[in-house]
Amino acid sequence: MSFETASAIPSLSQLLGQIGDDGTLALSEIREKANLELSSFAELAQKELSQFDISMPPAISLVSDEGFQLKLENQHPHEAEIHDWLNGNLILARKFKEVEVLFEFVRAAESAGELFPESSSFHIGLTSAGPIAYFEDHHNH
After folding, report:
1. I want to staple 34 with a disulfide (CB 3.0 to 4.6 A). Which of 52, 59, 77, 102 is the partner?
2. pTM of the predicted protein model
3. What rounded mean pLDDT belongs to the chain?
């Protein structure tokens, strides 16, 4: 095992949960961790949004752009305030990326061998019923 690999193991176990002695992970554990991180992201977002007097409904759909900056993907009556909130919010962007990576693992494990289009983007929807995580394929027209 190389030094780089050895130094990466604590990070992987922190992100994914307990890795077995044989190097395996249970999909159910990764899915549970992904859902916990999604809930944690939503709690952070709602706490920060409440400082701007923004609540759901309507829902807020967030996506990460090429520069890892979060952006609002849907129309919203508080669009300007949401853009200001997202602009430079590195803590939220990092948390979003952690959730995305976990859901990427789940998607890859559930669809072993399937190739996903590069135009597929990860989204987090903040709704009054709770957060949702989903992948959406964006076709250029």
Report:
1. 102
2. 0.79
3. 83
